[in-house]
Amino acid sequence: MIALVLLLLGGDDLAARAARLHREAIVADGHVDTLQRVLLDDSDLGRRLPDGHGDLVRFAEGGLDVPFLALWVDPVFLGPAAVKRTLRLADAFRRVCDAFPDRIGQARTAKEAESLVAAGKVAAVMTIEGGHAIDDDLAVLREFHRMGVRAMTLTHTNTNNWCDSSGDKPRHGGLSDLGRSVVAEMNRIGMLVDVSHVSDEAFFDALEATRRPAIATHSCSRALANHPRNLTDDQLRALGKNGGVACITFVASFVDEGYRKATESTYDPQGEEKDLLQKFGSDLEGFARASYARFRKETPKAPRPPLESLLAQIDHAAKVAGFDHVGIGSDFDGMTATPEGIEDASSLPRITEALLRRGWSEENVKKLLGGNVLRVMRESFGE
Ligand SMILES: [Zn+2]
Asked: What is the reported pTM?
């Protein structure tokens, strides 16, 4: 009986410690897709939305301080249309900041992020998903940087004119000469080279080309879930050596091998999009809206994986890349299925508590939650 009471007290003690730690830590998330719903549905992020994963209410409940808000450029938008799409998403970002100046602001440096958080606000970092957004033009890249874009995935699921994607046929054997110039220019102006989504060859080309820490904003480990979109142990080690950071994503099919296998045979997103592409033809806005509406209605196609699978991913990446080189990159509002226990952004404190239970030190949990991402920002942008 006494032992039971002590056990319960011990448990409460740990829960309280986890809650305090989570509150004190600056929590960063390498990849959040919530701007899509602002652009396509005009969603009001100021209130608690009934669906999806993120809004200012749930960011606050989950203690999410520094979300990287992605300008995701669907690969149906190519050339000048991709640039325009990026601008429209940047406008959505700006409209959210303008509507709630007391709750959210744009962070361009680690220092700006820290002062926004100290003032009780969300410090949102503008990022791009899909290197085709720059339309092969370094001037466009520079202008995006001036708007405050601080990271860019070199590709999305499409191979573009200068970088191969893990989700498409290779055309360059990794990174082309133009791709190397893009990386060099990103280093020079201060934009994180984001290697999530790229092919294995492009990953190592990018790591060889970059003079600064790279980031994988939303990837898991292939040793645990054999998806080509995930990082091999060699890649995790290379990111550690480069001083970069691997942000572990919550997407069920990247987290859990069982879920990946159960869903790969039945799920063909490209195939499902073909009918919409045909229907909308050159009306890309119409296509994007219909495609997003369909995505929002999707439900998990197999039982969701346990939280344990996500924790195993975090443990593995920390072990292989090092505790100084891991973070989180949820993909909130960009995925259909999350692990059990992670319902939305408000669930983030559960990860802190679970890691303490697994024996993680408070210092290492803090680094994972945001310390490492802020360090990389500081090293790359100054201050
Ligand atoms: Zn992605």
From this structure: 0.95
Domain that holds residue 57: 2-266+301-381
311-321: pLDDT as tens digits: 999 999 999 99
CA–centroid distance, residue 218 to ligand 1 (Å): 7
Ligand 1 centre to CA of 75 (Å) is: 12
Structurally, how many domains does the chain consist of? Answer: 1
Determine the distance separating the centroid of ligand 1 and the alpha carbon of 254, expressed in angstroms.
11
Task: Please indicate, yes or no, if residue 275 is contained in any of the structural domains.
Answer: no
Note the pLDDT tens digit of each residue in 70-126: 999 999 999 999 999 999 999 999 999 999 999 999 999 999 999 999 999 999 999
Whole-number Å distance, alpha carbon 242 to ligand 1 midpoint, is 22
- How would you label 356-372 residue by residue, b for 16+ Cβ within 10 Å and e otherwise? beeebebebbbbbbbbb
Residue 204 domain flag: yes
